[in-house]
Structure formats: C-alpha cells, structure tokens
Specification:
Elements: E1 18-23, E2 34-40, E3 45-52, E4 56-63, E5 69-78, E6 85-93
Antiparallel strand pairs: 1-4, 2-5, 3-4, 5-6
Length: about 100
C-alpha cells in the first residue's frame, strides 16, 4: 500500500456508518454517464449499500479496525461506445474520533 499523508484526507471511525463518493464529472464526455459502478471492499469493512448517479458513485461503509487503512476499489463502466472503464482507489484509515 502506498505511503499516504492523511492530512485533510478522508477517515472513518470504526463505529460510524459513512458514505464515500467519487465524482467523475471532470473525466466524462459531454453526453457520457456512469452506467454501472461496483466496489471491492476488503475484509474488515462492510459495504452497507452503494449507488451511482450520472457522474458520482457512492459507497456506504460500516466497521473497520482501529489504526488500519483499507484500500477500496471502485470500477465504473460508462455508456459510451466503445464503453470506457474507470478504476479508482480510495484509502480509508480507521481512526478514533
């Protein structure tokens, strides 16, 4: 896992249930929208639900182990022809808040 400075980065308390989103609007073409979005969530975290709109993809997470950083992978397919795929990673540290 890369060495990341988490100052001003996202984090989560193990007891919280929070949403984390990725906005793809700067990457999509004028008429292109998110068609599907899937999240790979590692063991220790639970994906409560996930949703997407035309340009934003969201996952709701619960759980986590204190002082552990989790790598989430979001795979997005668009409606373009040929279809484009975006793979994004979020690193979520579990902290005491």
């Amino acid at each position: 896992m890369p060495d990341i400075n988490y100052k001003n980065k996202i984090s989560k308390d193990a007891l919280s249930i929070l949403d984390f989103s990725i906005d793809l609007s700067d990457l999509l073409q004028t008429t292109e929208v998110v068609q599907t979005s899937s999240w790979t969530v590692p063991s220790g975290l639970t994906a409560v639900t996930n949703t997407h709109g035309d340009s934003i993809t969201t996952v709701w997470l619960s759980g986590g182990i204190l002082n552990t950083t989790y790598e989430l992978i979001n795979t997005v397919l668009t409606n373009s022809t040929p279809q484009r795929t975006f793979v994004n990673r979020l690193y979520i540290p579990i902290v005491k808040k």
